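FW: tagging you since you asked about this chain on Friday. Here's the raw sequence from the shared folder, copied in full. Didn't touch anything.
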Amino acid sequence: MAHFARPVALADSLVPYGEEYDIHLYAPARFAGHLSQKTYRTGVLKTAPEEVFLKNIALGKPMFSADVLRSYVQEDCRLIRTLRPDIVIGDMRLSLSISARLER
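HL: got it, structure written out here
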């Protein structure tokens, strides 16, 4: 939940400056209920099932398979191309640093 709450806290802190910032926050579908009353734009990020992620960690495996990371990069790049943000901030979206660099 912390990986979701920190970006929400940041986005919420920018709301008073709404004329200066066009805020978009994308998160896994399981958090949609927490975003329904937000005044900024929100959307859903496709993510691997949480139970797979937790099982991988428990077994000492990589958190995400290469295929999952590739799909995340594709989705991230699509969003970045669509939104054309000046800044991208993420928390535990491991693909985001790759995607942001690819999209410059």
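FW: The mean pLDDT is 93.
HL: agreed, and Residues 23 and 40 are 6 Å apart (CA to CA).
FW: great, closing this out.
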